[in-house]
Amino acid sequence: MFFPISGAHISLVYLVLVGFLIGVLGGFFGVGGSFIAGPALRAVGLHWNFAVGTDLAHIVGKSIVAAKRHRALGNVDLKLGLLMALGTIGGAEAGAQLIQMLKRKGNVDLVVSVVSITVYLGISCFMLWEARRTLRRKGDRKPAKKKDASAFRPFTRRIRRIKIWPMVSLPASGISSISLWLILLVSFVGGLFSGFLGGGAGYIRMPSLVYILGVPTHLAVGTDLFEIIISASYGTVSHAIKGNVDILIALVMHTGAAIGAQIGAISTQYFAGPKIRLLFVPLPLIGVAIVIYTLFTGQKL
Asked: In 178-216, which ranges are continuous DSSP H helix?
């Protein structure tokens, strides 16, 4: 099918299947799925600026479906999500401006590809190390949702001891006191990658919630999805104004994502936190493989 906004010819079946896969991953891991969606759209001919903006547009609808399901399961900290939205919006605008700068210089595809590979590979390696180290420890008989140990927890506790006013409490996440500036910093960085690489940047924010703020994994998944609704909506409008969104492609992808998001959200109830993090590891690597393929061959999948 021809999409006149971006000038691309893309199979409807391909878009629905990509949307469904991203929906499952988003509901299960609390990510927008841009580490797959961006490269997948790039692989069928979209320039990175359209891949980034269109991915953000499709993520809004998928995240609403997944966050609603997680809210029903008790996996959303609304207060934390709203606070993070403040930092994410600023970061998303900064990322979008960087995309515009690169687009004017004509090297957006190369730079975004290299940054994508570096970020995705780094996240996978770190989470593989942490999750495997955590799972080597003796398990207990707690329900899967309650098992959320982390080998990185001592570092997390040191970070949370930073006392920079104002301090806030997050009862839903089991955090009695934490600096608001720490929350804003984590969300700004996530927003920056969201605007620059596309999606909700859950591949940055979900691990950050767990490893830096110390939020339980299941709550990090649901809260990140709730926050993505706000940040991705802002990012979509920002990119649409700049001419980087093909809304027709986004709507086709959402038909598959809406179903996948429900499946992914429900599935989290059957896995402990460390196992969710371990299962997360291969996902950015898929994005790396697609980006490298398109970068060095210039071919379409």
From this structure: 180-197, 202-208
